[in-house]
Amino acid sequence: MRRRNLSLVLVAYAITLLNNAFIIAPAPLVGTLTAELGLTNAQVGGLVSAFLLTIMLVQLPAGFLIDRFDNRRIIAIAVIALALSAVIPVLVPTYPVLIGQRLLAGGLTAFIFVPLANMVTRAYYPDHATPLGIFLAGPPSGMAVGLLLASPASAAVGWPLAFSLFALLIPALLPFLLAAARPFDLSGRGFTAKTYVTLFRNRQLWLVGLAFACTYSGYIFFVSWMPAYVSGPLGVDVVTAGIVAAIVPAMGIAARPLGGWSAAGPFSADRRVPIALGFLGLAAVTASLLFLRGPAALLLLPAAGFLAQFPFSIYYVFGRSLLPPEFSGTAIAFLNTTSLIGGTVTPYAAGYLRDVTGGFTAALQMTLLISILGPLLLLRLKPR
Fold first, then answer.
1. What is the DSSP letter of 92?
2. Mapped to the 3 state alphabet, what secondary structure does 308-364 carry?
3. What is the pLDDT of residues 191-221, one digit of tens each?
4. Is 192 helix (H, G, I), strand (E, B) or coil?
5. What pTM value is reported for the model?
6. How many CB atoms neighbour CB 325 within 10 A?
7. 277 or 63, which is more confident?
8. Topology, domain 3-378
9. Cα 222 from Cα 199, distance rounded (Å)
């Protein structure tokens, strides 16, 4: 891996780390938000769901622009707009403002994550599986940072600033990104809207996307609701709960690069295998959590984080191979859109089930069923 390439991957990793810390910031602040604003659990979960909803809605149109225009300019505009929007909840910390800003931020994030991933894949293509896996360790790193630091930041500077802090830091990384990306040709490609639309007739691409939605559903459940789960049913103190909850997404720092490596190495002949293993392992862990409490349950949570994230890089490599090279941004955008179907519904649904039942059993059962559904989609998917 050449040094200049590594620089690009590391800066892209750092930007997506901060962006994902911002996405998950409401989760560790659930107690504060319910107390200060009188919110329900479903409403707090909705602050994560709203963010992911607009990423999902905007991502495919964004993919069209990402493959047509220079990705560096797209990212710079989106990052600055995101930071400016994050100032508003600090000044006016009310729920309507919070939810509105999260909806806007999700749309802007659609022009940050995918262009970053596209830059990495284009810089390394065709040997992009491992570098992409390294870049994709950024989101779980960010989730871990957000879960670990948002609550202490709230105590130090107040919850409104803690809510927006990570988004306000991202623009500082733009000069480093532009410098690292300078050696590469990241200009756009010319094509028509009709050509773009025909790409989505690929049934294999849809199968990969829907399987990714099931995987992402399990991942976002364990990330967004673990602070409340660990400090609630498992009876762990708030500080320890934050540390344990942060470990869950942090497992992706190893799982996602390993997944990318496996797609290029031992499972290159049949990429369905590691995805199926991830599903079945997560189903086993979730089923166990329905019965276990105390230290045994705590020890299983890192395994859930690892198993849910191991297939992530494989999905992107899979999807990237199903479209022509000049549509790499579109392939990534499509997978982001479909995966976020699970990501959008799950945080709110889990919060709703908790409000209705008073516990986490129903939410765990929902996650178990989705983890069982996922492997069924793989039966109609070609090996690679």
1. S
2. HHCCHHHHHHHHHHHCCHHHHHHHHHHHHHHHHHHHHHHHHHHHHHHHHHCCCHHHH
3. 667 777 777 788 888 999 999 999 999 988 8
4. coil
5. 0.79
6. 13
7. 277
8. Growth Hormone; Chain: A; (1.20.1250)
9. 33
